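Re-running the complex after MR caught last week's input typo. The corrected sequence lines follow. Everything else is unchanged.
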Amino acid sequence: MSRWLRLLIFGAVVDAGTIFGGWWTVPIIAAVWLRALPRWSSARSCMLGAALGWAGLLGWTAVRGPVDLVARRVGGVLELPVWGLPLLTLVFPALLAGLAARAVRSSPTR
Amino acid sequence: MSRYHLVRLLARRRSPGQIDAMRSRSLIHRESLTRVACLATLAGLLWIGAQGSGPLPPLGPLIDPFSGVWALARSAEFPPAAVGRIAALGAQVRVVYDDRHVPHIFASSEPDAFRALGYVTARDRLFQLDLQARAGGGTLTELLGAPALEMDREIRGLGLGRAAERLAAALPDSGEPRASFDAYAQGVNAYLDAMAPGELPLEYRLLDRLPTRWSPQRSIQVMLRMGYTLTLDHTDLDHLRAAALVGITAADALFPLHSPIQEPVQPAAGSPHRIPMFVPPPGLPDRGAVTTLAALPRSGPAASVRRPIEGEGVGSNNWAVAPARTRSGAALLAGDPHLELTLPSIWYEARLHVPGSVDVYGVTIPGLPAILIGFNRDVAWTFTNTEADLMDRWAEEVDDSARPRQYSLDGAWVPLESRVETYLGPDGEIVAVDTLRFSHRGPLQRLGGRWFSMRWTTLESGGGTGAFHRAAGARTVHDWLEAMATYQSPPQNMLVADRSGTIGIRSTGRFPIRAGDGRGDRVHDGTSRASDWTGDWRVTEYPQAVSPMQGFLASANQEPQDPRDQHRYLGANWIPPWRALRINALLRADSAVTPETMRQWQTDPASARADCYVPYLVRAAAAHPADTTLAHAGRLLAAWDRRYTRENEGAALFEAALAVAGSRLWDELPADLRPGSGAFVALLEDPANAWWDDRSTSDMVERRDDVLGAALVDGYRATVRAHGPAEFGGWRWSKVHRLDIWHLLRVPALSKLGVDVAGGPSTLSPSSVTGGGEGSSWRMIVELGRDVRGWGTYPGGQSGNPVSRSYDDRLATWKAGQLAELRFPRTAAEVPATSELLLEPGSP
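Corrected-run output:
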């Protein structure tokens, strides 16, 4: 299975968790994913996959409404530049997934 | 040998296996540390995600791309078709949203129409509903926390929280107004029950709160909030404070019973005309007032909520023209209530259609089950605030000045009712506890060292919208006026016109009758029931007129009746009739009025106020030709066309000079005790009056022209300091004068700040000098021809969702003084639909 396909699958699982569970499922999914498929995944790939997953949800929302206005107005409320909120939306799950994955990674052996 | 070398020597002596084991242990150790660090960081991130940090709301649910703020984009515009359910609905209701996002509600009964109105209002304005109800009930702390405590304390201290409870408890079990309040609440709550997580308004997400369920009491709280906005009055205390400083005779003249320029709402012979008025010089302090005030602070009790006075940007207009003076031969009506402008707007546009009962279009205030201003197939109506005095105070004698339990009445001690007000925080914690006391008149307030009780019609008259419901079905002006006869608070100058060509106006509401000399502009003696209110005006006594000979009617918050026609006290210290003078001048000059000319009048930039003051300022400059600065300023002012257009460069100088003139003239009084323009205008005709004398110059006695000349120089210099020399273009009104339309939570990113608009103090589209946040909140024109046609707009949009294009899509139209045609077809099929909502009976 190609690396990109694995990333996409991980992203889809993250999306499913976010939709049916909530944002807090992201680190759990990353931890379980890494423990279950240690040869196929790494903390870095989990970071990338989680960001990709939420980017997908953002893209899906963008088709249905003015996400640029959300970025501008809500970002403005939080005193962020217009790119701040989208960036935060990608970095936040990436950090959650990456940190969780890194925390449960198997200990190095001889 | 150093420790380093010893370790290296020992290491050299170890076997490779030992070295590997050491390396492995080191790696494991490092890995453990990294893992702990990751877990700690993850925990921190999860905490910020779940709980937020400082002012930051919980980040996780906020930026979650499925149900967080991004979801607002998906609900920004309504889908072409949707279905909702309301359990109590009698039959299906069809709601068609037109191309201006106005819901046209087609229902088979009035209760169903109100259920649908509650549902669609919640769908568009849920947060506003909640906030306004809380503002009227004094429970903002439950949503906003301790920062809102002072606002809540003021509201509950005025008795509004108690009044809402009592008025709700007094609602009948069935019939009106209970039925419409219940129906509306059912609609709001049905939407709440059905609302998807992604539709939760942004404000709740930022505050990390959830909406509260609706109830009839919350509708009453919204009504009381309007009463607070429109009728809170401190004239009696201002009069008392002025009497304590300059004597009662001077105080009477500073806050006169009647407007010295008469252009009343009820047409009077010979208007406009002036009432001769003499302002006595400052006298000795009135001993009675000083005693009553005791330790009352020099500043007023509630300077932040003083009623509008001259120079501020509030006030409302309306006028109607009979067919004989219109080009089309149909009656025309125009209205534009001026209020604080907010995003979303205070108004929500809607239409209610119930076959055989009502077909009404107009604006409602979110939270109220009624169209307040609008039109039906035969009649159109609009309001301005009457500005009557509806609040009196009594100086009470109590048994304990710190914690009174009784008050003296007719020689006996009477127990005070006490009530504990508990202010809760967002998590149910107690923020503060107050004990309020009530006499038989109303709430007690401690001002300085004295206790005053207060009676206020607003606290007793917020019980229903039934009059609006009956009026919505009226076929003629007379029907309409009769339907509104039971309306009580806040009193309004109600202007109405019908398709038969009748026009009418009546200042309608509950007006109390006072004992003794009948005046309410003085603090009464609380120790005797003889000073209590004795009744209310009869409807026939209200200021009113129907189809007057002059062929038009107008009101702009001015004194409603010429004192020659009315001897009973209605109020004092009236808003000057500048706008009324201008409106009536325009109406008198045009005998072929069209909707288009009315539209232009609504943003007319001319100023009767400037017409009054400028000649005096220019004359003062001419009186001192040797002063080159004054002469220059005088020339600039004389060249001014007295119009507040965006490109105008004279208004800035005039406003600066007038502000200084007011400060210099009223130097005997504290800044928050400035009289209105009545006394100022009277003094313009009295150039040697002692009030003109500047108290800071003991060696000379100033006269009018000295003060006005100095004010013009100071105003000129202040304008140059602030905006540069006149010839550099910095005095353009659009640069000086900006309007701020704040979001309800005063969040800059969700507000429209610095909007440049034409108009200024006391023009027909008024706003304060620096812009401020008040202005024309709903402009409407209706032509009552064979078919009724309406045009209107307000600054903002129908949606409360800041990412919807309907959030502020009307602002450009409003700013340009344009109006949109209001869609009022007879059938649902003719509505230019953009979206449709079917409301079905059943549980959400």
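None of the earlier attempt is carried over here. The longest helix of chain A spans residues 43-64. The mean pLDDT of chain A is 91.
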